[in-house]
Amino acid sequence: MTEPIRDAAFWSWLKAEMKKAAFGLGIDDIGVASPEPFTELKGRLIRHRELGYESGFEASDLDKRTDPSLLFEEPRSIIAISVAYPNKLPNPPRSEPVARRGILSRSAWGEDYHSVLRLRLRRLEQWLQERVPELRAESMVDTGELSDRAVAERAGIGWTGKNSFIMNRKHGTFMYLAEMITNLPLEPDSPLQDSCGSCTKCIDACPTGALVGPGQLNAQRCISYVTQTKEMVSDELMRKIGNRLYGCDTCQIVCPVNRGVNVTRHPEFEADAEQVKPLLLPLLNMSNREFKERYGTNASSWRGKKPIQRNAVIALGNFRETSAVPELAALLKDDPRPVLRGTAAWALGRIGGAEAEAALEAAVQRESDDEARSWAERSLAALRAEKPSETDQKDFETAKL
Fold first, then answer.
1. How many angstroms separate the CA atoms of 318 and 331, rounded?
2. Burial class (CB in 10 A: 0-12, 13-18, 19+), 73
3. Exactly one of 61, 112, 142, 395 is catalytic; which is it?
């Protein structure tokens, strides 16, 4: 068999065929970006760091985050892909008194998208290698050094919305992103035009004001990032978390581009309603084994069970769920984790009542951890100073489906 001539016409043909094949490979959008350094992005990241806006989950080396040649020898192109995910939960269970529920963000519905997109990239790499045996490629899904969003924007997958998400007219913002650096000299695609216009709905709706400007996010205040931390959360942010167990979708829900969008063609992302909108109380005593069985293949599991349990405690406090007081009091007394004890103290202070007050009094006398004791003292003092009012009952936002 004669080897094809590797001229401009061949690479143009390969790119066109790749785009035709993408849907059959389980990819919803595909584009090509140049491997030139992301100079403008680097400037933004430097400023972002100077302002203290980083989440702490990012790769620390800004050069590697913005220069593909530091990650791959002689890159010729970057192939960006997106896979859309659903955002509607059919017949969601109701959250009611005594049966309060939390919610996982839509990006954590179904199977962990990291695994799914790695499989999609392997399929794409195999497809390319069958046509170009000398292919070299390096794939990345979220945890790589490069910015998935910057690559996707350059490759024409979508534009960067004011909520900092990549979006397009077909799939809105509900897309997972990944990329593959290659040695293939593919012609880059053109970026899409920003179509947000004068709309500021996402900025206006952000519960904590974390969207400090168009496309500018202070991750330290973003509920999506805060729910993934393992430390104590400030009183202000705990109130804002509402009943979110992992992530936050507010800035996507209000986005007009997302209106009417709901892609359900990928069975891996079908949501188990009891997994993504679970009862809160059973989460408090969930064992490591139970957590692995229930959430081990879910994107929310990467930080372990502690953040989700802490957020469940916060949600019960925000709901002022009096039936949860015995469980929270037991957590405050016996849990070996100071952060969980401190959060339980906060929640008991939010709920109030004689039983909660007694549990806090005992904790003040017993608690050996300074931070947890401080939360017990503050909650007890607040309870004694002012009993919770009816008007304060709903001063938090529950996550909307």
1. 17
2. exposed
3. 142
Residues 194-248 pLDDT 10s: 999 999 999 999 999 999 999 999 999 999 999 999 999 999 999 999 999 999 9
Enclosing domain of residue 148:
8-88+109-182
List helix spans (H) across 23-112.
39-50, 62-66
Examine residue 68 and state whether it is found in any structural domain, yes or no. yes
Residue 254 lies in a domain: no
* Amino acid at residue number 271: A
Which band of pLDDT confidence, cut at 50, 70 and 90, is reported for residue 58?
Answer: confident
Q: Supply the pLDDT for residue 391.
A: 40
What is each CA distance from 305 to 245, 285, 290, in whole angstroms? 11, 10, 10
CA–CA distances in Å: residue 245 to residues 86, 113, 210, 306, 320: 18, 18, 18, 11, 16
Structural domain contains residue 102: no
For the question of residue 142 being annotated catalytic, the response is yes
Query: How confident is residue 389, by pLDDT bands cut at 50, 70 and 90?
Result: very low
- Domain co-membership, 286 together with 366: yes
Q: Do 348 and 213 sit in the same domain of this protein?
A: yes
**Whole-angstrom distance, CA of residue 307 vs CA of residue 322:** 22
Handedness of CA 169, 171, 172, 175 (dihedral sign): negative
Is the model's pLDDT at 3 over the cut of 70? no
Q: For residue 57, is it within any domain?
A: yes
**Residue 313's beta-bridge partner residues?**
none
Cα gap 202→181, rounded to integer Å: 32
Tokens for 55? 């989440």
Residue 294 belongs to a domain with what CATH number? 1.25.10
For tokens 């957020």, what's the residue? 311
**Looking at the structure, do residues 178 and 317 belong to the same domain, yes or no?**
no
Degrees, nearest 5: CA angle 68-178-12:
75
* Average pLDDT along the chain: 94
